[in-house]
Amino acid sequence: MSNKEYWEQLHSNKRFRPRYPETEVVRWLMKKEWGETSKVLDAGCGAGRHIKLLAENGIIPYGIDYSSGGVEYSRRLLSESGYQQYVENIIQGSCDSLPYEDCIFDGVISFGVLYYLDSEMIPKAVCEIHRVLKNGGEAIVVVRNTEDYRNNKTPEKCADSVISVNNGNLSGSAERGMVEHFFSKSEVLELFNCFREISVERIVRTYDNETICDNDFIIIAKK
Questions:
Q1: Is residue 189 helix, strand or coil?
Q2: pLDDT tens-digit profile of 11-35?
């Protein structure tokens, strides 16, 4: 089964439609000044939690996701929250081929998306994020790194870091059978070298008395 088919199944389960935005996205959003016409794309919007956050803060939201279930739920969430005018901004598609003109977004969010793409799609998706951003626009991207508990090897190169998840703990059990990509820092820096500025930090969360560790890179990239 493809990752797209997995996510169609997962989005039918309420458990995989989180309601609250990620703290890192909230912080990024609040640090910047946005105008009344600012547009931000959530590339891989899932069930719409960050779409709703954008609308609530006076930013024109756009969203794309390859799961029809995610798109449907995101649209319904906007409509039920009083943002019917933005429903048509949520569409189905793939992050490696964004159906938008060049230089139209002030910001792009890609939280926990790129590591579900294959090795050929990942650099295309990064180039697409760069392409649709305005000059001076900024992207926030979160990816899993090689030290994440779901990874069963420590690859150095892109082609070697695509694996099948088989860890039964926590969310890994829901993702069992999916192909995922775990990033080294050197790979991140190479992928995002088209951006004018880039910072890479870590998000580390531990569970079960620190026996299990979620380990992500948070990338802020300015065009």
A1: helix
A2: 555 555 567 899 999 999 999 999 9
